[in-house]
From TrEMBL:
Residues 126-392 form the PPM-type phosphatase domain. It comes from the Eukaryota. This is Protein phosphatase. Its cofactor is Mn(2+); Mg(2+). It comes from Podarcis lilfordi. It catalyses: O-phospho-L-threonyl-[protein] + H2O = L-threonyl-[protein] + phosphate; O-phospho-L-seryl-[protein] + H2O = L-seryl-[protein] + phosphate. Residues 1-91 are annotated as: Disordered. Its EC number is 3.1.3.16.
Amino acid sequence: MPGVAVQAPNGAAGGTRARSTRRGGRWRLESPAAGRGRHAAGCEGGKDEEEEKGKGSRRRRRKKKGGQERLWAEPSPGPQGPPRAQAPQPEAVGCWAPHTMFSVLSYGRLVARAVLGGLSQTDSRDYSLVTASCGFGKDFRKGILKKGMCYGDDACFVARHRSADVLGVADGVGGWRDYGVDPSQFSGTLMRTCERLVKEGRFIPSNPVGILTTSYCELLQNKVPLLGSSTACIVVLDRTSHRLHTANLGDSGFLVVRGGEVVHRSDEQQHYFNTPFQLSIAPPEAEGVVFSDSPDAADSTTFDVQLGDIILTATDGLFDNMPDYMILQELKKLKNSNYESIQQTARSIAEQAHELAYDPNYMSPFAQFACDNGLNVRGGKPDDITVLLSILVFSNFSSNYFIVGRQLKLHTCKTLNEQHLHFSSLVYRISRMNFNDVYSA
């Protein structure tokens, strides 16, 4: 209820008018000067109040609930001379300021809610990928794939920009060697261009085909012609919308595994047996002879993903030698989402595919596909193998930590062991972090 002011009887010292106000269910009598300064004084009392007048000051007594008396003095305006010195302030006589305490506590609660709400909102919105990789070439050289490197004719990249994680694989067409062309140059340049476009922010997360198109156009515009052909598969995670956008051209591809089952997979694109769709740049005399598909021919999909989903992106060297059930058996060995565990599983999958590729008695998926096309083929298919294995996690478990609305920029994937929230200063302290590079410099 708003305060109701009434005029006091005539005769107040110095012609001062007093007013009675009701605030919060309590009545009080005060002068205009006292009304202006009541919050500075910091005291509100019970219902009983009396005013005592003196020569140079007025003394007020108010009873606090429970019988505690609170007392202070205020200067009285008028011609009597300068006001006397004020008596000790409420805190000096044991007066507590409930509205001040309430303000402090309310402010603290609001800040705490904002902090906790912000963290909860960040965790619920932002996902990220922890990715490890492994690759093998036909010449038996193997090892953990490093940034900017290819295995055989395969190439890949992993990049990040603001709200999206992007990764891709490409498989150079080996037939160009018959014409004196290194197939790895085309696939490697294509992937490096895709990576650069992502890091520069020249892409739309919901349009992975656009990444492929822009990269291919840059290759076409090179002053020195870069001859060759390659398949390509691009996977984009929109961290905010929890959606995965993919574009696949040819026989490379991806699997999304949830709860031990394949819930999404790419469709293989073939002109005919063992002739996949491909991006190509051919010399003028070979135009019309070499297969050359448009990036727009890529198969595009968009779907929601969930925390803990496993995304496996690989070239045909994996899928031609390992059926889904074997891949799922290896993925069951993945115990947690830290980088070391993912790296170990990626290596295990690549090693098994590499061994099966050279088993002459193994009925591989490639051999089965050949039989379906009327060819009597048995055994694995020796080929370059590239595997990117990713797990979907909260972004505070990967390369981005969000702390009270500020982004702590860390450029490598990390495992968060402990978070300490110090409420008194509202500062987050993150300690004992293990730093693990997804890719070496």
